[in-house]
Each structure stands twice: as structure tokens, then as C-alpha cells.
Amino acid sequence: QVQLVESGGGLVQAGGSLRLSCEASLRTFSSLPAAWFRQAPGKEREFVASISWTSADRYYGDFVKGRFTISRDNGLDTVYLQMNSLKPEDTAVYYCNVPKNLLATARSLMVRSGEYWGQGTQVTVSS
Question: What is the pLDDT of residues 101-120, one digit of tens each?
């Protein structure tokens, strides 16, 4: 059974930082791209960032504007999202996402999410 377990969310003041982690129990994780999405109350889920299995390719949502960095450690089957200069509008549940198909890419995850989702971790940014 595939599991993606996120952690690292919490309450932070505007301008602060958080580091999210997502640990995958997926044998092929090191060969797959991975992504972060988020969903704010009353809004649709949106793409945040994605990373290729080699970490060579990384993509970000337009709203990130250099504030977030996605990374991964394939030895630990973990993907990270370092979030700096957080704003109240970053408040959302953040989800880890991994595709089932080895043909998926970090670029394709920008427009089509993968099949596996974590349970989400809440990020709340106060003003």
C-alpha cells in the first residue's frame, strides 16, 4: 500500500518560514517525479512545485516568486518544500503528490497531478 506522509505544517507569522516533508512508502519513488499542491478554503487545489527524480528539473507556481524551494532525498524517499517569506495568502492545506506512471515528468505534474496523495498538512500564516 502506497503511503505519502506529510509533516512540518503549523502556524507561523507573516514573513516566517516552514519546511514541509513528505515521506513516501513507494518502492519506485526514487525513479518518479514528485510535487506539492495546496488547497485553501473555498478554492480549488493548485500546483505549488514539482521536482524530477534526479532533482535536475524543478518547476514552481507563478505565485511562488522565489520564496519556496522543492528538494528531495531519494535515499530517504522524502521530498521537501522549504517555504520562506510566507504570506497570509499561503494559508492552505499542502499535499504531497506522486504519479504512478514512470513516464510522468516534473513538467507534466504542473498540469496533471499524479495518482498518489498524502493526507495533507495545514499551513496557517497569520498577519
Answer: 889 999 999 999 999 999 99
Contact assessment for residue 96 and residue 6, using Cβ atoms and an 8 Å cutoff: yes
Nearest to 61 by CA among 21, 23, 89, 22: 89
CA–CA gap between residue 104 and residue 60 (Å, rounded): 17
Q: Evaluate whether 78 touches 21 at the Cβ level (below 8 Å).
A: yes
Report d(CA 113, CA 104) in Å as an integer.
9
What residue type is assigned to position 88 of the chain? Answer: P
Sole residue written with cell 528538494: 71
Average pLDDT, the chain: 96
Number of CB atoms found within 10 A of residue 21's CB: 17
CA distances from 3 to 29, 63, 68 (A): 11, 28, 24
Among 62, 58, 47, 46, CA closest to 106: 58
DSSP 9: -
